[in-house]
Automatic annotation (TrEMBL):
<dbReference type="InterPro" id="IPR002347">
    <property type="entry name" value="SDR_fam"/>
</dbReference>
<dbReference type="InterPro" id="IPR052178">
    <property type="entry name" value="Sec_Metab_Biosynth_SDR"/>
</dbReference>
<dbReference type="GO" id="GO:0016491">
    <property type="term" value="F:oxidoreductase activity"/>
</dbReference>
<dbReference type="InterPro" id="IPR036291">
    <property type="entry name" value="NAD(P)-bd_dom_sf"/>
</dbReference>
<keyword id="KW-0521">NADP</keyword>
<comment type="similarity">
    <text>Belongs to the short-chain dehydrogenases/reductases (SDR) family.</text>
</comment>
<protein>
    <submittedName>
        <fullName>3-oxoacyl-[acyl-carrier protein] reductase</fullName>
    </submittedName>
</protein>
<dbReference type="Pfam" id="PF13561">
    <property type="entry name" value="adh_short_C2"/>
</dbReference>
<keyword id="KW-0560">Oxidoreductase</keyword>
Length: 245
């Protein structure tokens, strides 16, 4: 790949699952990739396997994002906002009537999914090349509802439209890829059974879950230099589940 076609790519939450699968695609295509996340050991292992750079920091912490800027690339062509997940799956259930616990849960999902995306994107805006691509991982939950997690992903859809509008004059696009049930990730944190998965994927037109590689392919396409007229969109990669009623 010539220097003129090589692109600089930053992927948050790049150590596992969809983020790692996306990093693998961009790296295999010859691009310069940096993955980020909170866990140094996980990132280092993934970076070694994929042949990419890595930087550990908490994307929901403004001070940590600011401090990371000294080590993040400049001239970024593709920013993939993948950090996030349903924090409710790692927290104890909130008792009925516990409004403080409910508020904590909603804040946790907002921070993990919205703040990680907003803070990193805002910090890197001055470093985005004209014609850059911003791709954010959303969820079918934004359409179907899933408590605070679905609400957080829905908030990202509104943010994405504003981002696409304000940066469009620079030729920068902003899109969301919305998976449904996707296995071989850390998302469910061992909290679901095979029966639960079967029930959820029964509404998919192809009657199956997705894979990280399939989601990564959609992200990779949106990150292409020649995908410049597709912006402000939510691309559903969930077997048609978003149409279920």
């Amino acid at each position: 790949m010539s220097p003129a076609t090589k692109r600089t790519v930053v992927i948050t939450g790049g150590g596992t699952g969809i983020g790692a699968a996306t990093a693998e695609l961009f790296a295999e295509a010859g691009h310069d990739v940096t993955i980020t996340g909170r866990r140094e050991e996980v990132l280092a292992a993934a970076a070694k396997r994929l042949g990419v750079a890595h930087l550990a920091f908490d994307a929901a912490d403004p001070a940590a994002v600011q401090a990371a800027l000294d080590q993040l690339p400049t001239g970024i062509d593709v920013l993939v906002n993948n950090a996030g997940g349903n924090t409710d799956r790692r927290r104890p259930p909130v008792a009925a009537g516990d409004l403080a616990g409910l508020a904590d849960g909603w804040r946790a999902n907002f921070e993990a999914n919205v703040l990680t995306t907003v803070l990193v994107t805002e910090a890197l805006k001055p470093r985005l090349a004209d014609g850059a691509r911003i791709v954010t991982v959303g969820s079918v939950a934004a359409k179907q509802g899933s408590g605070s997690y679905g609400a957080a992903k829905a908030a990202l859809e509104a943010w994405n439209v504003e981002t696409a509008r304000t940066l469009g004059v620079r030729g920068i696009t902003a899109n969301i890829v919305a998976p449904g049930v996707t296995l071989d990730t850390e998302f469910f944190a061992g909290t679901v059974s095979e029966e639960w998965v079967a029930g959820r994927v029964a509404t998919a037109f192809n009657r199956r879950a997705g894979t990280p590689a399939e989601i990564a392919q959609a992200i990779f396409f949106l990150g292409r230099a020649d995908a410049g007229h597709l912006t402000g969109q939510v691309i559903h990669v969930n077997g048609g589940v978003h149409t279920a009623r």
